[in-house]
C-alpha cells in the first residue's frame, strides 16, 4: 500500500518505546501463536488490513463494533482474525485509532465480481497501482478462498446452466469439491 495511505500523520517507528516498550513483541507473539494454531490466519489478517486501509486509511476503523459500522458491512462479514493482531514489520506507530466507522463507506472496496478496469480505478483513486491490486486482491487468499468468490463461475454462469467459458479446464474433482449451494458463510474450498 502507498506510504500516504498506510502511514498516518504523526506516526514514527518506536512511538511506544517509552510508554509500552513491549508493544511490538506482544503483537508479534500473539500473531505467532495464532499462526501456529491456524496458518490460514495469515491471509485473513492481510485481508482485514486491506479492508481497513482501503476505506479510511489504516485507522483500525474496521475493528469498531456496532450495528452500522465497517465491521458489519456486507464486504466485511467474512473478515477473520479480530482476536489475532497483525504481522510484524517496522511500522510507524502512534496513529490514533478512528472513532468513526461507517458501513456505507465500504462501497469503495472492490467487489469480487467487478471488472479489472473498475478495480484499477478504485485502486488508482487510493494512490495504488496495478501491482498493488494484484498483490492485495490475490494475496489475501493464499491458497484458500471462500466458495462464494468463484462458485458462481463453475455452476450456472450467467444463467447458462454451465461453467464460465473463460475457464478453459475445470477438473471434475474440483467441481465436486465446491458446494453448489449459495452459502455466504465462512466455508472454504481447496
UniProtKB/TrEMBL annotation:
Co-factor binding comment: Binds 2 calcium ions per subunit.
Positions contributing to substrate binding: 110
A Pfam family the protein falls into: peroxidase
UniProt-listed GO biological process terms: response to oxidative stress
The reaction(s) this protein catalyses: 2 a phenolic donor + H2O2 = 2 a phenolic radical donor + 2 H2O
GO molecular function, one term: heme binding
Catalytic site positions: 51 (proton acceptor)
Chain residues that bind heme b: 140
Enzyme Commission number(s) of this protein: 1.11.1.7
Database matches in SUPFAM superfamilies: Heme-dependent peroxidases
Residue(s) at site: Transition state stabilizer: 47
Superkingdom in the source lineage: Eukaryota
Cofactors demanded by this protein: Ca(2+); heme b
Binding-site positions, Ca(2+) 2: 141
Residue numbers binding Ca(2+) 1: 52, 55, 57, 59, 61, 70
Residue ranges of every copy of the Plant heme peroxidase family profile domain listed in the record: 10-190
Swiss-Prot/TrEMBL keywords: Calcium, Disulfide bond, Heme, Iron, Metal-binding, Oxidoreductase, Peroxidase
Disulfide bridges in this chain: 53-58
Family: Belongs to the peroxidase family. Ascorbate peroxidase subfamily.
Role noted for this protein: Removal of H(2)O(2), oxidation of toxic reductants, biosynthesis and degradation of lignin, suberization, auxin catabolism, response to environmental stresses such as wounding, pathogen attack and oxidative stress. These functions might be dependent on each isozyme/isoform in each plant tissue.
Name the UniProt record assigns to this protein: peroxidase
Organism lineage: Eukaryota, Viridiplantae, Streptophyta, Embryophyta, Tracheophyta
Amino acid at each position: 500500500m502507498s506510504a500516504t495511505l498506510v502511514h498516518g500523520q504523526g506516526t514514527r517507528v518506536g512511538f511506544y518505546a517509552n510508554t509500552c516498550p513491549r508493544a511490538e513483541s506482544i503483537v508479534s507473539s500473539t500473531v505467532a501463536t495464532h499462526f501456529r494454531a491456524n496458518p490460514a490466519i495469515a491471509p485473513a489478517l492481510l485481508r482485514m488490513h486491506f479492508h481497513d486501509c482501503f476505506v479510511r486509511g489504516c485507522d483500525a476503523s474496521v475493528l469498531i463494533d456496532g450495528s452500522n459500522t465497517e465491521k458489519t458491512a456486507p464486504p466485511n462479514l467474512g473478515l477473520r482474525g479480530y482476536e489475532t493482531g497483525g504481522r510484524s514489520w517496522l511500522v510507524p506507530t502512534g496513529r490514533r485509532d478512528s472513532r468513526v466507522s461507517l458501513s456505507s463507506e465500504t462501497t469503495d472496496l472492490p467487489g469480487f465480481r467487478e471488472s479489472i478496469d473498475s478495480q484499477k480505478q478504485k485502486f488508482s483513486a487510493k494512490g495504488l497501482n496495478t501491482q498493488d491490486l494484484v498483490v492485495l486482491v490475490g494475496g489475501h487468499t493464499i491458497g484458500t478462498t471462500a466458495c462464494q468468490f468463484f462458485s458462481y463461475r463453475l455452476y450456472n454462469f450467467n444463467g447458462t446452466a454451465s461453467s464460465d467459458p473463460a475457464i478453459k479446464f475445470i477438473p471434475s474433482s474440483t467441481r465436486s469439491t465446491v458446494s453448489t449451494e449459495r452459502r455466504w458463510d465462512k466455508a472454504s474450498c481447496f
